[in-house]
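Predict the assembly for these two chains.
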Amino acid sequence: MYPQRANLPEALANRREKLSKLVDFPVILWSGSPLSRNFRANVYPFRASSHFLYFAGWGLENAAICLEAGKLELFIDAPLPSSTLWHGETPTPSAIAETIGADAVYPLSELSSKAAGAATIPVQDISTYQQQCDILGRFLPPADKLQGIDLVLAEAIVKLRSHHDAAALAEIKQAANCSIEAHLAGIRASRTSTTEAEVRAAMERVILAQQMTCAYNSIVTTHGEILHSDRYHHSLQPGDLLLADVGAENSMGWASDITRTFPVSGKFSPTQREIYQIVLAAHDDCIAKIRPGVEYRDLHLLAGEVITQGLVDLGILKGKVANLLARDAHALFFPHGVGHLLGLDVHDMEDLGDLVGYQAGRTRSDRFGLCYLRLDRPLETGMVVTIEPGLYQVPAILNDPDKRAKYQDAVNWERLAQFSDVRGIRIEDDVLVTNIGAEVLTAKLPTTIEAMEGNG
Amino acid sequence: MYPQRANLPEALANRREKLSKLVDFPVILWSGSPLSRNFRANVYPFRASSHFLYFAGWGLENAAICLEAGKLELFIDAPLPSSTLWHGETPTPSAIAETIGADAVYPLSELSSKAAGAATIPVQDISTYQQQCDILGRFLPPADKLQGIDLVLAEAIVKLRSHHDAAALAEIKQAANCSIEAHLAGIRASRTSTTEAEVRAAMERVILAQQMTCAYNSIVTTHGEILHSDRYHHSLQPGDLLLADVGAENSMGWASDITRTFPVSGKFSPTQREIYQIVLAAHDDCIAKIRPGVEYRDLHLLAGEVITQGLVDLGILKGKVANLLARDAHALFFPHGVGHLLGLDVHDMEDLGDLVGYQAGRTRSDRFGLCYLRLDRPLETGMVVTIEPGLYQVPAILNDPDKRAKYQDAVNWERLAQFSDVRGIRIEDDVLVTNIGAEVLTAKLPTTIEAMEGNG
């Protein structure tokens, strides 16, 4: 029940100290409240707001913290006596305050006394959002359209949360290690499973067994070309590749995010092997380039280049690589960004919009090959990013009459048809930017052909 | 993706036909919209409103149906072309309409044309709730405080949903069968697991593998006395009993609800065995009494009586059974109701409040032994109820000074102390009321001592 972390108060104090150097107004962050599923008492598993978690270190329900000049004040009500029957003994407010190193603790009704001049970030659940507006006495726009002191706060939080401290890295590594085990279980389970659902179940079992949860809805599909497939109903056929994009979130709320693609039969076909090698080369080349100062956008373009070169070598794309890239021909097969920031959120701080991923002065491109890029900043020490190139045959793209016309000369459609047993391949790892380069936090999970065939 | 049900349109038409005999105004039911977890795109798995599911038969997101005089009109927008990249090809509105047997299908923007004089049931998610108020042009109270035509509609829906048709029963049985397998897996896993979390994971794996979800947050705990424990962090010790209250919800949204309690070592202690036999006797005696016309409240009282007699026989309670029952002494150890209705919701229609469980003219008792009773109606053919007596040592009750004083003479506290290795035992099955008595839908999962020790 209590977060089992030795230096939690120190880590949180350190974050508050850094925040106090960036903002000179009080900050109130709300944790949020549980959301009901089909009736009020049947709630979804609660997940506190990530901004609250970052500074409070504990996923408390219906709580708020006030941060000012390095001080932490906690606002939470004592559990009702009647709740003991249903939920057992739960920690008292003062025990919680001590655990997280709060300077003081008050009932929630006291929160309004802190509202004057305070900034906040709006949470996702509407009832808490309405509470935020009520207590602050002003309308709050959505979290990706903040203004005034809220925007200043958001910018400060982006600065802090983009660079992970040692406490945060330990959490991310714990989550990543669990995800690695889940993927190994998934590869094993795929050999004997008859449906996608069975493989997903074997993977999520590992996550649940370690008292973690999924950081996002798992993608476990033989139709890797459906980028965010959230159904698991297809049966596994001997020639299928299975794409598994599954990541654990640990008990402190920190995420991991791994994708592997492997043959359910334990053996790639020659065509699958060719495409897999291209994606793997893009993945490896991007990771090899990671170091402080490198533009993440350049990694994305590098992935596009490796993929384009690979497809030219296979005879699927025709022409010069540079020309094909300039025309975004690679995006026919790689229609998403090469990755994103990772932290408490799997797309870290995505609630704040492109303020997070796009350096001041930069905006999203509307180019086919760049519009889905979630991160366009120079890499800095302490960032954790995913690297996740992929190669897909998406019918909605490849059968689109406009695209067919535009890229008629660039694609050898007959040659492409020979690769019909490759619907989608993605390989994704979580990478810490270090002073000297990169540390792949998910490196213990192999990516090689041999490993994906179960012989690694 | 499509519901694979042969006679879905007929089953739904039958439900509409029955509804049309109970209400003479149009009815609009909303499905609801997905709820975000930590950022907008990271949503909890969507669950449509149960009232919508009952008449629409498909858990569509952001949809509504209008029911009038037996007709079904569907309101849903076509998927955006850009959604194909992320979610693949999804069914068109007209394909959905055909699958569920809708008479017509319109975009959501047309829904306001149906609003005049229409009744509804408010959904759980606030953004859809606000849409409901906007479109109907009136304030909607919470679903358990309805008035006017909305209350008439709620009463009609309670009539329909309390008596399951053949289509509904087939769904509940499918969910129940999956839960049975999950519990068998849990009993097996407990022998080799070191934590509650591992057993929970083994059980939920079975549910996920069958493309189902949990109907509620699983309770898997060595602290059965925490009635709604939702944490899984305790390690399993050789002398522990593990209480597992886990139920699958099938792909059509229908629930099941099973509890078993078993020794993690595979062997009950003599004291655990004594208490288990009492709970099992209460469970069996209640089920044996089930037939149309029997008051559910009398089953609850019967469970209390069997438990009281058992505790008197063990020397834990002192005095005459009738006197002890009159004083609610049994509620010291059995502080909840004996069960509830089961259907699309695990506590079926609980969103509508005591309108569901309490016959007109009856209200909740404030007696210690009755206040948690969720159902106080005569049983009728077609109802599905749970029977779930339990026996617990809840510190918050047994150490409460008022209770200790009140029941000082009724309890042999020294004798009770000999049973300290029994923190909580519950045995729960799902039972259909039939013309001639009862059908235990979860009967394939044994309840005997031998089975719980793994020798059944």
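The first helix of chain B runs from residue 8 to 22. The longest strand of chain B covers residues 241-246.
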